[in-house]
Amino acid sequence: MGSANGNDGAIDNIRIVDVTPKMVKSFDPATESIGRESTMTISIVNRTDLGKKDGWAFTDTLPAGLQFTSNSYESTCTASSITVDPATGKLSVTGGVLNQGQKSCDIKVKVTSLESKEYTNGKPNGNFSDIKRLDGPDDAKVKFVQGTLNWTKVDPSGNPVGGAVFTVSGPDPATVKSPEAGWPVGDVEDCIQVGCSGLDKDPAPGVFKLEGLPTGTYTVTEKTPPTGFVPAKDSFTGTIALDKLDGQVNATQGGKITNTLGSVTWKKVDPSGNPLSGSEWKLTGGARDPKIDLVITDCIADSAAACSGPDKDPAAGLFKITDLPTGDYTLIETKSPAGYELLPEAAWEGELTADKADLDIGAITDIGRVVEMLPKTGGMGQWPLVAAGLLLVGIGALAARKRGA
């Protein structure tokens, strides 16, 4: 009992101190690609008294769409049990202990999402239950984003060409979690009308766009070229990154993948193999519409750049026709070199294929007789031959008359 004259029985400066540990939650990185991992950390932070705190527990249920990548975890916390269940999306801890003098401990778990979405996780959001002897945590946010992959199929002039099919692969499945149906990769057919139902979501012919992809490097290989074109021999890559979600294939070429066309070469020669100038030709065919229908004259110039017509070989009697789609062709001589007869039938019928798009027909020889040129005024021309023929006819007739007599 305290003295009435003193304060020995009094209690001064009473304070109530909260020594309950606090949960702190975070995600690193706070923004990540779909299919890739962010580390979720729950820290148990002791109060300033640093006393021993035991018997704490909690259950964290992830919001729908956010998922654990496995049942593995890392922990510096002492606890009776720590359970990660990817099937239910629950992290449960029981019998937790902070030892005397211990400031904090951490539990780390990998999470991901297959949806492009921002998630909120914390006590205010209703994700925590069965909390014992712990405060918090406040809400923490994590965001998962998706990327696109783009490229354009063009002809040698840079114009988009529709109808190609590409095979797209990547990234390494070991580095990214995939949905059951897989990511939108594989054989990609060119969508050429509004309402694309396949993997390509751009309706413009020759323009490709894949959506809903995780970050990483992708490989694009042409499987089927547009009709009449030669497929690109090389594969191309494109990268989607967090700081560049709009990925571009073959970025060094502005996202363009160029298809090449075929060519045909030949030379017009005499029976001795000497080139003959002045012939004209007609080349028809090809697999694309409208069909090729070329009128070809022999270019004779100082350089190929000076050849303005279809023939791009400046040497007399030599022909080179470029930018030809694959397909079946017919080559007909429409004008022979001076002094020679036209070839009686097609000079060549054949096919340009993707495997043999640049074709050398070889030498086309004028094997017919040389056509006699009209004589100049006053010249002999063919009259000696005609006179000799008439003479022989006359002699024959005379002999017949004699036999008849």
TrEMBL record:
<dbReference type="InterPro" id="IPR013783">
    <property type="entry name" value="Ig-like_fold"/>
</dbReference>
<dbReference type="InterPro" id="IPR041033">
    <property type="entry name" value="SpaA_PFL_dom_1"/>
</dbReference>
<keyword id="KW-0472">Membrane</keyword>
<dbReference type="Pfam" id="PF25564">
    <property type="entry name" value="DUF7933"/>
</dbReference>
<feature type="transmembrane region" description="Helical">
    <location>
        <begin position="383"/>
        <end position="400"/>
    </location>
</feature>
<dbReference type="Pfam" id="PF17802">
    <property type="entry name" value="SpaA"/>
</dbReference>
<feature type="domain" description="DUF7933">
    <location>
        <begin position="21"/>
        <end position="127"/>
    </location>
</feature>
<dbReference type="InterPro" id="IPR057693">
    <property type="entry name" value="DUF7933"/>
</dbReference>
<feature type="domain" description="SpaA-like prealbumin fold">
    <location>
        <begin position="147"/>
        <end position="252"/>
    </location>
</feature>
<dbReference type="GO" id="GO:0005975">
    <property type="term" value="P:carbohydrate metabolic process"/>
</dbReference>
<feature type="domain" description="SpaA-like prealbumin fold">
    <location>
        <begin position="262"/>
        <end position="356"/>
    </location>
</feature>
<keyword id="KW-0812">Transmembrane</keyword>
<protein>
    <recommendedName>
        <fullName>Surface-anchored fimbrial subunit</fullName>
    </recommendedName>
</protein>
<keyword id="KW-1133">Transmembrane helix</keyword>
